[in-house]
Specification:
By secondary structure, the protein is of the alpha/beta class. 15% of the residues lie in helices and 37% in strands.
Amino acid sequence: MAISCTTYIAAMRAMFAKRFSLFNETPKDRGFDNNVALNFRNAAGTADVETVKLNGSNVLVLGGADCAAILLNSAGPVIRPMSIPADPGGTDQVLTAAQVLNTVLTHTPTGAANDQMPTAAAIVAALPGCQVNHSFRFVLRNTSGGANAITVTTNTDVTLAGTMTVAQNAVREFVGIVTNVTAPAVTLFSLGSGAF
């Protein structure tokens, strides 16, 4: 029987919270050997589709088609790796899902710029096993050489909440939450901003 990444993350977190807090143990103390994978098979039982393994730092690495290498630390929250896409440069951009799904995106505009979000459908399609309330985050850095602001703008079925402007030499964090997967919809929330 195949289980989803969400299901076994919840199970692992519950197990770790109970075992490690009660016995003051590490994952290795409970029989997880470093770099030995526990594999989950597909529904047909013909292929491994997801894996769990303890890395050299005693952090569980959950990976596979539905997990995209999520890290689970027994002493803390799920750690989702972030990427650094190439600077798109120029001015107005239509961002891709790859540029906003768990990234630190630097944009060096040559003038005032609008960075348009991908469509909700593109975002949902790029999130493996996407379900309602799945989330993503990205950080947008404005490294313009002049006083050129970047404004994050909407796209089909993407709702914006909060301040969407990033000034020169400033950074702003955004969190997106999937609100519908059947008729894809995403709400993007603007969080804090600061200078660098």
